[in-house]
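Page 42, continued from yesterday. The earlier attempt failed because a stray header line got pasted into the input along with the sequence. Redoing it now with the clean sequence only.
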Amino acid sequence: MALAADTLSINTLRFLAVDAVQQANSGHPGMPMGAAPMAHTLWSRFLKFDPADPAWDDRDRCVLSAGHGSMLLYGLLHLSGCGVSMEELQQFRQWGARTAGHPESFLLPGVETTTGPLGQGLSAAVGMAIAERHLAARFNRPGFEVVDHRTWVIAGDGDLMEGVSSEAASLAGHLGLGRLVVLYDDNHITIEGGTDLAFSEDAGARFAAYGWQTLAVEDGNDVAALAAALDQARADAGRPTLIRVRTHIGFGSPAKQDSADAHGAPLGADEVAATKRNLGWPEQPTFHVPEGADKPLREAGARGSAAHREWLDRMARYRATHPELAAEWDRRMAGELPAGWEKALPVFPADPKGTATRGAGGKVLNALAAKLPELMGGSADLAPSTKTWLTGEAVFTSADSSGRNLHFGVREHAMAAVMNGMANHGGFLPYGSTFFVFSDYLRPSLRLAALSGLQVVHVFTHDSFFVGEDGPTHQPVEHLPSLRAMPGLAVIRPADANETAEAWRAAVERRDGPTALLLTRQDVPTLDRAVLAPAAGLQKGGYVLREGSRGPGELDLILIASGSEVHLALGAAERLEAGGTSVRVVSLPCWERFEEQEAAYRDQVLPPAVTRRVAVEAAHPFGWERYVGCSGQVVGIGRFGASAPAERLAERFGFTVDHVVEVARALLG
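This time it went through. Structure tokens are written below.
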């Protein structure tokens, strides 16, 4: 069982959570009360961390996937001296506090990834474990094990129920991620009642089928048994480990232990007092930290600090022996780009037939990969279609961790979560790809990337009804405006091959959030930049591609388009100009970047005095009123698509030069 020092620390963690939730009148006290022993055992005996530098590169990563139990993590960070003050604990769930309702990695050092939506933390941890394995293969040399850390997870019943964790756990087992260990807080309770209402499977058997080592601790308060299980997990280098720990939600509460009432609401003043009496804890003061309660965690932190100093010494010798590798390590972990990387971007010659932007994207990606070893990723079993295979690079497998090509399988949601974990880990620019319509499958992970400001790149191909014969199940319609509505996400829909190269430039340079690249299945002309404006205008989100024949001061009409419809707008402009109409064509591939420009630039591109505007985009028109105004028109698609050749669909849905000209002439009167 637990030593006296362990019990003191464990109960301190419990009642810091109880008091914080009670004071905030909001939160989840039950999970920290039941899971405190496993968290304490992990942090005090196994986790490698340095309180003075929670972001140290070779630290262990600890992910609280059951993010609703956030006060457990905040208590651990406080007792271990990792920079969370008592005042911050007392400000739990308040405006401006770093101790948010669910852990947010962008707010608080020591929070490895933003969690709360269940299953996301465990799935991101798989990405962290992949990152560690690949970096070890890339940088470790005989006598210089500069990458030597583990990924630990505390997960709950809800994490194991969510589909994303099943996808990610299956992948982790397949890849044999032996440095990944999940402590499963098996407390048998969900919000509605017992887990037996909807969750009766043998989770251990399921994970064993995935290829995991599965262990069990039947008494979640038995520190010695927890330590033995963690030791056994650490010894298995070839398999990830799930440790099922039988705990009791709301442990110690006379009226609410093993009850859904302990899950998502304060215990109540009377029950807090009764629980403290039951566990021999003083009722006052609140937020009580007895002398010596932090000793086990402070000692663990001291060991971690010593390990950090040893690592720094090792790195100094590594830099002298392997200077080029060390320089790459330093650059990648700092998130910096190598000098001259942009020179790798290809330039595509003008071509009326052109190429699909997915094909151009593949060429750009491979050109960049030769200069940016941090680029690593793959597809949800669609690389031949999305063109995201790194030619000449190995595949990341259980036997060979050096590969940069990842087979995610048909697991879009896990793919996105794994990308987030790789970005959280550091040292990577992760990318993933699928058909645009299947962005629905990964949206929660993409939202967390946007919320957390993670640099990941999503390549979404087959970006419109021009998919053709596969029909409406595979033809995105509402997806484009819905992604544009997501704060922090840059959505870029390039018009041709050269805008695609510029889109990749933007994604590589954007450090503070995710980028979605929307690429075509069908060929589009590679525009003649000797006649039209340079594709570099994409960096401002929108630009004047073609000026009206009478100059900027005498415009009759502005045609605005993105992606594959830009060449339609150019064709319509040529036809209208032949009739004496002065038409400007604006390429608007990225609304987010355009809105970041100064008002003077936006007004230069879209002069407020020119109110006759037509937008052309093969997507739902929602949102275009921002740019066409009350007097403008949108050629869009407000219905689901249909199964037919793309050319026939374009005629039926009005995406032809003739129809754009007709709409423009009607607007001009």
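Notes: Residues 337 and 402 are 21 Å apart (CA to CA).
Reminder to self: strip header lines before submitting.
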